[in-house]
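Morning. Coffee machine broken again, so started the prediction first thing and wrote up yesterday's gels while waiting. Chain of 222 residues, entered below exactly as on the submission form.
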Amino acid sequence: MIGWDDVYKLIASMFPLYFALILGYGSVKWWHLIKPDHCGAINQLNCYFIMPLFTFDFASRINPYKMNFRFLVADGISKSIVLVVILLWAKFSSKGNYRWSITSFSLSAFNNTLVVGVPLMHAMYGPLGENLVIQASILQLTIYMIILLVMYAFWSVNESLDQEVGPNDQLETDLEGNPNEDSMTRRPSLLIVLKVVGIKLAKNPNTYASVLAVSWAFVANR
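Came back before lunch.
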């Protein structure tokens, strides 16, 4: 049974995070200490420096030789079930599409494990809970997040090509009424799309941080 002491631990673990969020919101909305155009620079600082270092710090603590593989398999099965449900929705629903499928999967299957999950699980279950949520975050960062980025990259490439070509370019014909080969939409080869995806992944610092952290943990705990 959850007691008042457990509630206090949860509030104490979450208060610093939400206090920082309220300060950030108030600095822009109420006190005007930070201008809206400065938020982009702050987001880039978080994306390219703070979050990768934060991820490396937590992921490097784990012992990869003593991971709870039953828990990780259960996490993978739950994500697979969510993915199947979303694919069925996209196939049989008139409102289903590729973009909403990616967004729905990311919202349903992914969670903020490090920033929110670590303090919550540590407050409720101690070091065991913290260890499990870090294991889930490693799998999410090194496997599932990369797959999600690949899906986003594929969608982005196809969307940009559709905008560049336009719907009228596919309707041009020659004097005999046959489709003009020069004006027809030419989809890129799989190799070109994979190259674009690889470039996008190479620019993501969180990918490097998670892979380096796992490598460091393997060496440190061998």
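The chain has two domains: 1-34, 35-164+183-220. Going to sketch it on the whiteboard this afternoon.
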